[in-house]
Structures are given as structure tokens and as C-alpha cells.
Amino acid sequence: MRKKTIWVVDDDPIYQIIINKIIQRSEMFSEIFSYKNGKEAIDNLSEVIDKDGDLPDIILLDINMPVMDGWEFMEALGEIQPKFKRQIIVYIVSSSIAVEDKNTSKTYTNILGYLSKPVSVNDLLLIASND
Amino acid sequence: MKSQKKNNKHVKWFYERPKLTGIITFLFLSYIVGFIVFQQYKLATEDNTREMTSILHVVRQNIEQSLKNCYTTTLSLALTIDDSGYPTDFDTISKALIEANENITTVELVPNGVIKYIYPLDKNQEALNLNILQDNNLKKEALKSIATHKMYFAGPLKLRQGGEAIVGRLPIFIKSKFWGFSAVVIDLEKLLNSAGISNIDSSKYYFQFSKLNLESHKETFHLSNKADFTNHANISVKIPDGDWKLYIISKKENNIPYQILVPGIIGIILAALFGILIFTLLRMPNELQSLVTAQAKKLMNSEIKFETIFDQAAVGIAHVDSFTGRFIQVNNQYCKLLGYTQQEIQELNYQTLTHPDDLNDDLTSIDKLRDGQITDYSREKRYISKDGTVIWINLTVSPLIKTDGKVISHIAIIEDISIKKEAEQLIKKSEIRFKSLFEDYPIALWEKDFSLVRNYLVELDLMHKSAEEVKKYLGTHPEVVIKAMTLIRVIDVNTMCMKLHNAENKEELTVGFQKLIGERYSCNFANHILAITQGENEIIAETIIKTAHGEPRDVKFRWSVISGFEESLARTIVSTEDITVQKQSENIIKKSQQRVESLINTIDGIVWEFDTETDRYNFVSKKIESILGYTAEEWISNSVFWPEHIHPDDKDWVVKYCENQTDAHLNHDFEYRMIKKDGTIVWLRDIVNVVVENGKPVTLRGIMIDVTKTKEAEKDLNASFDLVSEQNKRLLNFSYIISHNLRSHTSNIASIVSLIESSESEEERNDMMELLKTVSRSLNETMLHLNEVINIRTNISLVSESLNLEDNITRVKNILSKQINSNEVTIITEIPKDTVINYNPAYLESILYNIILNSIRYKHPNRKPLIKITFTSENNVKILKISDNGIGIDLDRNGDKVFGMYKTFTDNSDSKGIGLFITKNQIDAMGGNITVESEINIGTTFKIYIL
């Protein structure tokens, strides 16, 4: 099985360190990229498309972020989606327990799941195998 | 014949123009007079000229004769000269010659132009030896005679010895050689006298003698009386021997003589008089003619008038044969009345047209008229028209032609009186009808005579006095009322009247009327008298009368004067309608009405009724006074009172809603505000019933209930509900914040712990422990922040102080001086001096600090930060405004998050997302509010509302 690339979009630097560790432990992903907010992530996506580079297989997306939050990122992603060769799978990873956020996530077809922090190695294993 | 006609025509032309003819006559006669006078004048002038010519001729002949004599003398003298050129016997011969010719005064011989021989010498010494051919005066004339070889008379010359003289010189040639002159000197006066000048009538004529100068051809006159005579009649003749001219001149001036002028003027006057005479004569027939024309015109007019009257008259006129009754001539109206044509009617006689019932009377009258017993007659009778209908007419017959005292024909004038007759019959009928109406009328009627009452009032001088005056008088004189009442005479009463009074017969009421009148009536009668004095013809009143049995009855009393008796009041009708039963039921109704009204007035709401047709309120209950403060009259009298007193914010929709509901025939129940008389607002609930008749809303009935208190309670309830909701929302929000912020830390801690547990190396474990410490610090910080917010929220006894705004700003600027200086920030404050606000000092400092720090932190990279702080206070609203020229916030995207906890919009590492969160909480805690306006790349403005 090919190892997948994963992007983590979250403004919490501690979380970034932790998730990196967990992803490494899971040994399911070939590459990990971290982005501080939606804007950084979408800019990089556009760049990848332009350079015809490797698109991420999975994006772990936080909701509350400065500059561009998770929902805004999803809107921007929808706009550049047609340029992709394949669909990008997105998982919302949030500490929010608000029901509205969960409901909102269901309106996007490429959001496959809603994970509440903390994220465990098992969660990642499931994500990686869920294809 | 034709020419005569033509002549007549011309004569007529003149006849018709008297003025012109007069003028022509005058001009013609004037011309004749002028011609005759002129001819006379011409004859007189010719006579005169002839006389003068003959005189002049004689004189000239005489002069010429004299000159010839002189010639002879000179010739004779010349013959004395011998061949040698010397005269012989000069003196002797000369003497003889002078004696022979008395005109000659001197004779001379002038050899070679030098006067050598003179006789008589003694008088002419001076002339001796004078060379005339060298003398300038004499030379020319002397030379002329030499040249012509003829004797020439020079002069007249002035003589040295006095007087004027002519010198005749005869040139003498011996053997064709000029020898000299033989000359004679002639006295001019003598010459002329001898010619006969003095023999003429000197009163009529005089002479003049002139010499024509040889060189200058100028004429010089030599006789006295040298005045200019060109205006006088004159004739002249030339005498060539001396180049003289002899004139005979009339003494009178050459003007039209008076003897000609006078007859001329007289003639012209006569011509004028004759012209006027002609004019006057010619005019007379013209005037007569016009008089005749006018008369003829008058005559014709009256004939036309008569014909017109006959034809167009509104009455029928017929000329009838008195024996046969045949119509000789009828006019159009006559035919029209009877429906026949002129031709048809000429075939008929009046007997056939007359109604058989009226014919006998008619025939008798005609007989009488014919016999002269009566001169004319007139009667109403019936005719039968062509279509068979009976026409009532008024006939007037008068005789037209009489022979031997008998009437042969007469004029009949008929007038249609059918309508009048009809009316008469109608009147008759209605009279009967009214009589029965009176008798059988279901209400008691009296016919009363008030004339005595009126006379009495006249006697008392009460008629047409002012109402107050009469009232006062009657009050003080009750006996007058009683007296007046006795003066009423009852003429008639009807059956009902007898019934009402239980009377057996009419007399009981007519004669015994006085007994019936109760005391109460007398009081009313005073009013009755008052009305009569005011000239009123009708009185309606309610009163009580007694029946014949003494039973009191309520009656409606109506008194009215029969038309035509308004002055005398001799006939009046009194109706007394028994309204006892009606009164009773009226009282019942009144009572129940009062009950309903009192019931309505006790209802705690304004009961009202509105008529949609008149667009007015019929009724508004008294409650209006306590609910709205207005009176029912105010409301009802003004048709727009209701809409005008609705609260301006409600007026439009309420009126519209009400109209729509009414038009849809729907009862409605709604609430709105009205303005009370004292200006306060009253909430009303209006419950409206729409009454529909024949598919149309006719009446609206409703009740307005004061719901102000309910409304206020509702408002309070709403306010507290809003407050609770808001707090609940905040609480929920806060709980989200707490859970989110704590959860992110706790989840991190959980993850780290599990990583530690499963870590394989000590190093990794240590790393994780370090991370755990960081999370712990972060959690602690969050807890502090949350604690702070909770403090703000729960701090009920927040201390407010009066703070000088400017001082506080200065203090914050000092705290931030490092940032301000390093970023080259300019802060402008526009705050009214000594502005003091009531605020918690720590909060104010925190608010100013956070916002100013934000402005510096989010400055625009391309420009130096500029912060402007202003303070305004308007309508009790105090606003502290802080604007910057920073990068701005995209409010479309982040508007709801600006004041959220840990909400940041940039990747600025300084951003924590706590400053504005705290700020907002502090402002909320002080009871104020904060708003934000921002534009990307332009700047941000925070407005802080301070209570």
C-alpha cells in the first residue's frame, strides 16, 4: 500500500508538534505538511497545482484559525477543486463541541469525518485505511 | 312724345335737386351779368381811345405843319447864300421870315458849323461864333443832318436865355460840297400851343413830349407832369423829323370804373336772389312728397298691424253673418280652437258648432242684438270641435255692419276657457273632498276664529313687539291671557273632535268651548299669544286637555292659519291629536334608553357608533372623558377627530386597516395608540363590529378599551425576556469559549500524556514533558484570562468615578510611549476641554490601552500610524471615537468575531485575540456598547458609547 501524504492545518503550535508525533507513530503517511491557517494551506495548494506537484491525500483541518478559518478554506477549496486530478479528503479536527460546526461539516461532500481533539494514533490509522 | 319724356326726365332731375339747380341758375345769371358789363366796359374804352386818337392826330398834323413851315423858312434863308458862300440881305430876310412864322424865335446861318449869322443878334450874342460841330451837346444831331442830307430838328434844348427850344438845321451843299447849316430856333411851348395842345379838355387828358436819344436810345420827357403814366390809358405817335414821341394820356387811372363795378355787383346779387328763389320753389313739392310717403307708410303699417292682430291674436275672432250664422271671415286662432281649416269653417255656421244645450240662449241673444235691443253680449258657452270634444269658451259678440238700424253682421271673439272651467270643477270637487276630509279626519280638528284675540292684542299694542317684552308683559298680566282665551270663537269641529271630548253635538264644543280649557292650557296659551305677536302662522305644542268627563289627555296641539287669513286670523285650524298612548310608550322607551345609556356609560371602555354614509360618529359614550380626556361632543362634532388624534406612528396603518376591514365587511379587533388630551399616549384595543345592510356597510359599532397598562406590562415582560435571552446567549457563548479554550488545552494534555506513556525513549519522554509544561503555562494563562472575564462579568459593585478623559488618554500614552515612539505614531485628540465621564478608572485605562495598542499593532506597512481620538455628546449619548489608518479588518468576513475570545485575523505573532474581548466585556459591564467600522487598507474606527 502506498503511503499517503497528509496536511495539517491548525494555528495551535503545540497541537502541531503533538500531531506530528502521532502521525509519525502511526507510520501510515509518507509526508506531513503543517500550515498555520487556511490561507497558507490554500496558497500552497494553488502552488502545487501550478507546479504539477503532489497533492495531499488527506487534510486535517481546524475550524477556528486567524486569517482564514476552516469554513473559508473549504469555500476556497471548492473554487479550485475542478483543477484537481482527484478529490482531496478532508477531516475536521476541532476542540469545538458545538453541534452547528458538526452540522456544517456535513454540507461539504469532501469532508469525510469530524474528529474531536485529542486525536489518537488509532484515529489516524482509521483515516489512512478509510479510502 | 319720347323727347317730351326725356325732357320731363331732365326737368325731374332738376326738380329733385333744388340746391344744385339754384346754384346752376345763380352761376348762369352771374355769367350773363358779367358778360354785359364787360361789353359795356369795352365800348366805353374804345370810345375813349378813338377820341384820344383823333385829338392826337390833329395835334401831330399841326406840329408837322409847323415843322414844314420851319423847313420852308430855313430853305428860304439858305437861298440868301450866293455862290461865293455869303448871305445877302441876311437881316432883312431873317426879319421877314421870323415875322412870317411866329413859332420861330431866331434864325441862324452856320457856315462850316460856326454860327456866323444870327437874327435877332441882340438876344443871342453868346451863341455867335459857336462851333456846333465841336460842341459835344450839339455835334451828334448836327452830324446826323449832314449824313442824311435832310433837315433835322435837334432838341428840345435848354436855351441860355431860358425856356426850351428846338433847333431845326438844314444842311446846305453848294456844288455838292457842304457849306454849312441853315437853322431855325423854335420855341417848344409856342410850337405845342400852336399845335392845339391847350385846346383839349384838360380835365380828361394831358400831353407828354419825349425825345429819343440817338446814341443811348433813352427816352427823355420834356413836358411838366412827368409822373409815371403807365397805369393810365395813353396813345403815342412818333415824329421822325426830330425823333420825338408825342403822348396823349388819360387823367383817370386804368382801373375798372365804378360805373361798371356797381351794376356788376347788383347783377350778381340779383342772380343769387333768383337762385335762392328757384331753390325754394323746387324744394316745396319735395317736402310735400315725403309727407305723403310717410303718411302712406303709417297707413300701411296700421293695416299690417291690424291684419297681424287679426291673424295672430291669441283669441279666436270671427266675422259672422248675423242672419245665417255663416262665417264670413275667421282668424287662425278661431280655426285652431275648433280644429277646422279655414275652408272647412267657411262652409259651417256657428249654430252647428255650438253645444245643443247652449244654442237657445245664443239664438235669443243674437235676435236681440239684431233688433238693436242690446249693443253687445258676452257669455260662457260650449263649442264642439271637429274631433267631437267639448270646449268651454268665453264669447263676446259685437255688431259690425248695420243697415237701417238692423245688424247684418257681427264680430264674435272667442277665448278658450276650458282650463279655467276644469279648474273650477276641480275646486268644487276638492271643496267637497276637503269638507269630508275635515269631518272624517282621524284627528280632532277645530276651526277657530282668532280675529278677536288679534284685535285685542293690537289694542294692547303687543303685536310685533320683541319676544322678551311680550313675555314680560304676559307674566305680569295673567288676566290678559284669560281674557284673550275667552275671545277665541270656535267655528266648527269635526267628528273626531266630538269623540275626543265625548261631546253629544257640535254646539257643546263650539259654544261651550271655554269650559274645556284646563289650567295647564292657559300656560300654553301664553306661549300661543307670544307666537301670534311674533307673526307666526303655525304653532306645534304638546299639552294636556280635559275631556268632557274631566279626564286628562295628552294631546299634540297644532295651530295653523288658513292661507289668506294670515292678517286677520279669522280662520285657523287647530288639531289636537290624542297622543296619550304614544306618550306612555315614549316614556317607556325613554326609560329603557336611559337604562341602556347608563349601562353603556358604566362599561370600562369607549362605546361608539359610526355612520359610514355621513362619515360621522353618531354616538360616543361618556367613558371617553376618563380614558382620553376629550368630551363626546368634541369627538362627534369633528369628523376627522379620531384619525387626527391617533399616534402619528400608527395613524396611517390604522386608518388603512380600518378601511380595508370595513370594505371587506369584516369585524376587527386591533390595538393602537392615541394621544390623550394631556398629551400622554394611551394604548387602545378597538373591537369593531361592521353592520352590513343590502350588501353595504352602513354602521360601525365598537368599543375601545384602555390597554395601556397591559401594554406596559407586556413591554416590561419583553424587555426582561430580551435581557434574559441576551444573558443566556452570553452565558452559552461563554460556556463555548470556556469549553473550546479549555478543551484545546486538555486535549493537548491528553495527547501528550498518551505519547509519554507510549514513548520508547527517555529523550522523547523529556521532550514531551517540556511540551506538557508549555501547555500547562498556556492553560494557566487561559485560566487567568477567563478569570479576568468572569471578574468583569460578575463585578456588580463596580466603582465609577468622575474621570477627566484627557488626563486618562495622556496616562495611556505614557504607558505606550515606547511603542508610540518606535512606530512614530501620531495621536490627535479632539476632546472638549475638561470633559469628564463617569467610568471605572481601571476599565477606562484598559479600554484605551487595548484599542490604541491594537491600532499600533495593526498599522499599515506603507504609512506612519495616525490615531484620532474624538469625543462627542449628543442627545445624552456620549461617544468616544478612536480611528486609525491601519490595515483594517474585513468586516464582511470577520464582523461577528472581532470581539470574540482568541479571535485573531492576522498571522501576527503578537495577536492573542484577548484584548478586544476583554474590552468589550468591560464596556458591556459599564452598561455601554462598542461598535466597529473598518475598511481594508484604509483604517478602523471604534465607537464606544458611554452611559
Automatic annotation (TrEMBL), chain A:
The keyword Acyltransferase does not apply. Keywords: Phosphoprotein. It comes from Flavobacterium weaverense. The lineage of its organism: Bacteria, Pseudomonadati, Bacteroidota, Flavobacteriia, Flavobacteriales. The modification 4-aspartylphosphate is found at D62. Residues 5-131 form the Response regulatory domain. This is Response regulator receiver domain-containing protein. GO terms for biological process: phosphorelay signal transduction system. It comes from the Bacteria. It holds the Pfam family Response_reg. InterPro entries: CheY-like_superfamily, Sig_transdc_resp-reg_receiver, TCS_response_regulator.
From TrEMBL, chain B:
SMART domains: CHASE, HATPase_c, PAC, PAS. Gene3D superfamilies: Histidine kinase-like ATPase, C-terminal domain, PAS domain. One of its GO terms (molecular function) is protein histidine kinase activity. Keywords: Kinase, Membrane, Phosphoprotein, Transferase, Transmembrane, Transmembrane helix. The chain crosses the membrane at residues 20-38, 260-282. Residues 377-429, 668-719 form the PAC domain. It catalyses: ATP + protein L-histidine = ADP + protein N-phospho-L-histidine. Its EC number is 2.7.13.3. Residues 737-947 form the Histidine kinase domain. Residues 111-200 form the CHASE domain. Residues 302-373, 592-652 form the PAS domain. InterPro entries: CHASE_dom, HATPase_C_sf, HATPase_dom, His_kinase_dom, PAC, PAS, PAS-assoc_C, PAS-like_dom_sf. CDD domains: PAS. PANTHER family: PAC DOMAIN-CONTAINING PROTEIN, PHYTOCHROME-LIKE PROTEIN CPH1. This is histidine kinase.
